[in-house]
Design goal:
With about 375 residues, the chain is α/β, with parallel strands linked by helices. Helix content is about 45%, strand content about 15%. The strands form three sheets. A seven-stranded parallel beta sheet has the order 5-3-1-6-7-8-9, with helices on both faces.
């Protein structure tokens, strides 16, 4: 079968982008002809045919619409048997809602920024372009099936767009490997390299877009746990968050390392992982942290919280209550027990299983 996969950017790191690679490799192994439609990519999948679809426009807020229209034109020329899209485009056969439900994200962001911020969000042309594409996508009679990576997003799509429940399948994200916790010797060596002491209580945060990922709440919580030091890995407005740390009197305990490709080293060095996100359909880094033996603290607004049993592999907490979780997990015995359970849980979510479940949908969508 000639199958088209659509994602604006495709690479082997990140969430949805990496899933495109995994799915393409799985489809090729199953004997399908795979065509990938994207604006940019690196390290191409051997055997897949790539089609460059430029999304550039002189009005940046129109970028998602421009990409959708150009993809539609490119697909009309190639005429694949089935279109599986990771983006909001026109008339895919299957849509994987890995970016969540945009209307819900706007509501959460509006609640975070207050009345004036909320008004500005709803006046933003960028948000309205995405909403237009989202509404049109879910109302399109050509859309046969939707894949979500959490029950949270499935419920949001049903609630906001009325998509029948039997046309939505939840397939949680997976991890490529489960390395488990680093040895005490490796952990100590990594800490020295990063500038920390072997007995420091290291709290790891991984994520870009610091506002969406709730970094402010972690910084504010740390002041109640004097022994904690925060490692921040990811891209964001460091300057603004350094000021937040200064205002809370914890500037000397928050360390920014920028965007990194060697995130595994930070997982291995840390004691716990914290993501006080405002909205995440399913944060891959949550599962990755668990696979390295890190107990996690995250919010119910993270779809990945559905695979974390509170009190077993970590703590599910409101953003304002993060400090309590930090205190709980500072106990070495509690931490060690949760770490063991986190590794066991991560083994249940391998990337191979994700691909197998996704491949099984193709027969349904093609019928």
């Amino acid at each position: 079968m000639k199958i088209a996969l659509v994602r604006e950017k495709v690479h082997r790191y990140g969430g949805a982008e990496k899933n495109v690679v995994f799915l393409a490799e799985g489809l090729l192994k199953a004997g399908h002809e795979v065509h990938i439609f994207a604006a940019a990519w690196d390290d191409p999948v051997a055997g897949a045919v790539y089609h460059r679809v430029l999304s550039k426009t002189f009005l940046p807020f129109l970028k998602p619409l421009v990409f959708a229209r150009r993809v539609a034109a490119a697909l009309a020329k190639e005429r694949p048997c089935l279109v599986f899209s990771f983006e909001r485009i026109f008339s895919p056969d299957v849509y994987r809602a890995g970016d969540g439900c945009h209307i819900e994200w706007m509501r959460r962001l509006g609640g975070e920024r207050g009345l004036i911020g909320k008004i500005l969000i709803w006046l933003s042309p960028k948000h309205h372009v995405i909403l237009y594409l989202e509404r049109r996508l879910f109302a399109d009679p050509k859309l046969r099936h939707v894949v979500t990576n959490s029950r949270m997003v499935k419920d949001e799509i049903i609630r906001n767009y009325g998509v029948p429940e039997n046309r939505i399948t939840v397939i949680y994200n997976g991890v490529e490997k489960v390395p488990g916790p680093a040895s005490p010797e490796t952990k100590a060596a990594l800490r020295r390299e990063l500038g920390f002491a072997p007995d420091d209580y290291l709290v790891l945060f991984v994520g870009s877009n610091f506002e969406r990922k709730g970094l402010r709440y972690l910084i504010e919580a740390v002041k109640a746990v004097p022994q904690a030091k925060v490692i921040v890995v990811g891209k964001g407005d460091e300057r603004a968050y350094r000021k937040i740390a200064q205002r809370n009197g914890v500037a000397g305990r928050v360390f920014f390392f920028g965007a990194r490709k060697d995130v595994d080293r930070f997982y291995a060095a840390a004691d716990i992982f914290v993501l006080p996100t405002l909205y995440d359909p399913f944060s891959n880094v949550t599962l990755e942290a668990m696979s390295h033996g890190l107990p996690v603290i995250t919010t119910p607004d993270n779809g990945a919280a559905e695979v974390v049993q509170g009190g077993q592999e970590g703590v599910i907490s409101h953003r304002l209550d993060i400090g309590a979780g930090l205190k709980t997990l500072s106990d070495r015995d509690v931490n060690e027990q949760m770490a063991k359970r986190a590794v066991v849980k991560a083994t249940q979510f391998g990337s191979r299983s994700v691909i197998e479940k996704t491949l099984a949908l193709f027969s349904v969508a093609d019928s």
